[in-house]
Specification:
The chain is an alpha/beta fold. It contains 7 helices and 18 strands. 23% of the residues lie in helices and 22% in strands. Strands 1, 2, 3, 4, 5, 16, 17 and 18 form an 8-stranded mixed beta sheet that branches. Strands 6-15-7-8-11 form a 5-stranded parallel beta sheet, covered by helices on one side. The protein starts with 5 loop residues before the first strand and ends in a 5-residue tail after the last helix.
Length: 358
């Protein structure tokens, strides 16, 4: 549906999660006005970014490393409340306080080359002709489902972290959790309390991290992810290179045998899964906690991808098109990284708008 034809702006921000809101904040600080020089587009129905879709049992107290947005601290939150409510309310208040005027729900279908050096952002509310673009679409909309032989024959239920409803729906069932990341372990530990049986399956042996994880370790982890992005490879999450924190709950789960890991199965059967050595496990549910991929398909017409499959990025700038910045992508996918990337992208964008070469 085209509501206004084509509208010219200096900057379009796609996505109103942590990275997008950080960028919008810094655009305002740089003197650009919402709905005048820039616009923020978000496809979600309400404020909160991907947090609004998190499962109810993920309370705020279980969230690891949530950093406040620039200019407004998140304080006094009740650790027992669902993170979706706490962070959704915080993002809502943030948008109101800084007058960011986020347009939602707005779907962005494609970004194409336009006339006079502008990019055309095709959306459900019309077309924006913009001088620059800050893409902050994250990963939540692209859950990754691995494919295994026999998957379509399974008679039970298959679901992904993106649709995880919380543990109560698995009471009395036999559940296989696939995935060695933070979400997989959280799901497993919750479900084990109510399920009749649980099995944990991962492609690689999980790495548990003991001791403090400080600034030095954090920078090293980000550098590893950043190197892939510089080479034009699909980014890994920061968590994938940091390991799993060995806290009290994880220690108890290991002691109780909940986190006894099995290697990846070879195929899926109508009743469960099977390994090459002939071992089988029967199950009612397979829960795929197998992560997400960057939601950047709308950028395909710009041909930004490298032969390695990723978008090569320097700082936040797409190497193949200096008008395009990616925030919350690769090394800036963490909440603190998203804040920094938003600031960095705006600095680069304002230089370009002022005619300063990248």
């Amino acid at each position: 549906m085209n509501n206004f034809g084509t509208r010219e702006l200096d900057v379009v921000v796609i996505g109103a999660g942590q990275a997008g809101l950080s960028a919008a904040y810094h655009l305002r600080r740089a003197g650009l006005g919402p709905d005048r020089e820039f616009v923020v587009l978000d496809h979600a129905p309400r404020p909160g970014g991907a947090w609004q879709f998190r499962w109810p049992s993920l309370t705020y107290g279980k969230v690891h490393g949530m950093h406040s947005l620039p200019g407004m601290e998140l304080t006094g939150a009740d650790d027992s409340r669902p993170s979706s409510e706490v962070i959704g309310g915080y993002f809502d208040a943030y948008e109101q306080r800084f007058g960011l005027r986020v347009h939602r729900p707005v779907e962005v279908s494609a970004v194409r080359e336009g006339a006079d050096g502008r990019l055309l952002v095709e959306t459900s509310e019309g077309v924006y002709a913009t001088r620059t673009l800050i893409n902050a679409t994250g990963t939540w909309d692209r859950p990754f489902w691995p494919r295994y032989p026999g998957q379509e024959t399974f008679r039970g239920r298959q679901l992904h972290t993106a649709n995880y409803p919380g543990p109560t729906e698995f009471a009395g069932l036999r559940v296989i959790v696939v995935g060695g990341g933070a979400s997989g372990t959280q799901h497993l530990m919750e479900i084990a309390e109510v399920a009749s049986e649980t099995y944990w399956v991962t492609r690689r042996p999980p790495v548990f991290r003991e001791g403090p994880f400080g600034e030095v370790q954090g920078r090293a982890a980000v550098a590893m992810v950043e190197e892939r992005v510089r080479r034009g490879l699909p980014p890994q999450s920061v968590v994938s290179v940091t390991g799993l924190p060995l806290n009290g709950a994880v220690r108890r789960a290991r002691d109780e045998g909940v986190l006894d890991r099995l290697p990846m199965f070879e195929r899926i059967t109508p009743e469960g899964v099977a390994w090459p050595d002939g071992r089988t496990v029967e199950a009612d549910v397979i829960l795929w906690a197998t992560g997400f991929r960057a939601a950047v398909d709308h950028l395909a017409p710009l041909r930004l991808r490298e032969p390695g499959g990723g978008i090569r990025v320097e700082e936040t700038r797409a190497v193949r098109d200096a008008r395009v910045h990616l925030v919350g992508y690769g090394p800036s996918a963490s909440t603190i990284g998203a804040n920094r990337a938003g600031r960095e992208a705006v600095r680069s964008v304002t230089r370009l708008l002022d005619g300063v070469p990248a």
